[in-house]
């Protein structure tokens, strides 16, 4: 397929109109290996079949190999299409008896609950020979395609497998066999909506930054005003203290005697002595 015949890849703001981006796409494993990436969408785990964006896939096959590690189990799936695919299932780490991990596992908190919520849903233990229906997202590790499981269900009967194969064929016939085409008006509408969201986000960010600057300026002014008031109160207190000191009468200190002062003559002291008894004219 030459560049002139390749279907057009639409921008990401148009993906919500795609019939494949928000659904579980039933695939053969060979079709997953055929998915291609685009430099403009690297790191987003978005792949393309023609120009259909693919993020969530669903496969079915038999487990032919198992590798168990502490936090992840790796299952090799073979659906008979000619290729195998590695499926990654996150698991909770096993707690060893008598360790701190075992104690925390016995008493789960909110943090451990969040960790358990990120684990995939698995209906039963998995072993070699089991036939699985796996829902997950596509990823690449060292140029090898992988599927990170979100939900794993065992297929117990052949009828369930046949129903899955029919869904694969139906998706190919109805959707994936032809390119995804959008009208130019729809693309322009999506671009305007995206520009409006970007503008609103930018305005919101600028408003938030402006409020932050105003708070900083206001805080600085409030600090300056507080310092000025404290200085005014200090000056007023000093002035009142000085006025109180000036309004008090002067304190007279006792006069210190040196011994050189001029002494005043002592006044004669007249003593009256009471006379008792009988006295005659001669005083006898």
TrEMBL record:
It comes from the Eukaryota. Its main location: nucleus. Residues 189-210, 220-263 have a biased composition (Basic and acidic residues). GO terms for cellular component: chromosome, telomeric region; nucleus. InterPro entries: NA-bd_OB-fold (IPR012340), RFA2-like (IPR040260), Stn1_N (IPR018856). Pfam families: Stn1. Residues 99-119, 189-271 are annotated as: Disordered. It is found in: Chromosome, Telomere; Nucleus. GO terms for molecular function: DNA binding. Keywords: Chromosome, DNA-binding, Nucleus, Telomere. Residues 44-90 form the CST complex subunit Stn1 N-terminal domain. This is CST complex subunit STN1. It comes from Chaetomium globosum (strain ATCC 6205 / CBS 148.51 / DSM 1962 / NBRC 6347 / NRRL 1970) (Soil fungus). The lineage of its organism: Eukaryota, Fungi, Dikarya, Ascomycota, Pezizomycotina.
């Amino acid at each position: 397929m030459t560049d002139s015949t390749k279907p057009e890849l639409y921008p990401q703001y148009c993906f919500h109109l795609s019939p494949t981006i928000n659904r579980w796409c039933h695939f053969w494993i060979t079709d997953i290996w055929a998915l291609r990436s685009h430099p403009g969408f690297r790191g987003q785990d978005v792949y393309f079949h023609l120009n259909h964006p693919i993020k969530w896939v669903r496969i079915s096959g038999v487990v032919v190999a198992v590798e168990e590690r502490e936090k992840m189990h790796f299952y090799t799936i073979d659906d008979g299409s000619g290729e195998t695919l590695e499926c990654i299932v996150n698991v909770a780490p096993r707690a060893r008896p008598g360790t701190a991990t075992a104690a925390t596992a016995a008493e789960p908190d909110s943090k451990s609950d969040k960790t358990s919520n990120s684990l995939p849903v698995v209906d039963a233990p998995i072993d070699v020979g089991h036939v699985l229906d796996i829902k997950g997202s596509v990823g690449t590790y060292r140029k090898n395609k992988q599927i990170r499981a979100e939900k794993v269900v065992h297929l117990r009967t052949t009828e369930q497998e046949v129903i899955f194969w029919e869904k694969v064929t139906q998706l190919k016939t109805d959707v994936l066999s032809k390119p995804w085409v959008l009208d130019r008006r729809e693309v322009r509408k999506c671009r305007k909506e995206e520009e409006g969201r970007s503008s609103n986000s930018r305005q919101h960010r600028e408003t938030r930054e402006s409020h932050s600057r105003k708070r900083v300026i206001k805080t600085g002014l409030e600090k300056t005003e507080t310092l000025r008031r404290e200085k005014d109160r200090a000056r007023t207190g000093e002035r009142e203290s000085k006025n109180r000191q000036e309004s008090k009468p002067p304190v007279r200190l006792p006069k210190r005697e040196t011994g050189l002062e001029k002494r005043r003559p002592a006044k004669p002291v007249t003593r009256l002595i009471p006379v008792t008894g009988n006295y005659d004219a001669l005083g006898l």
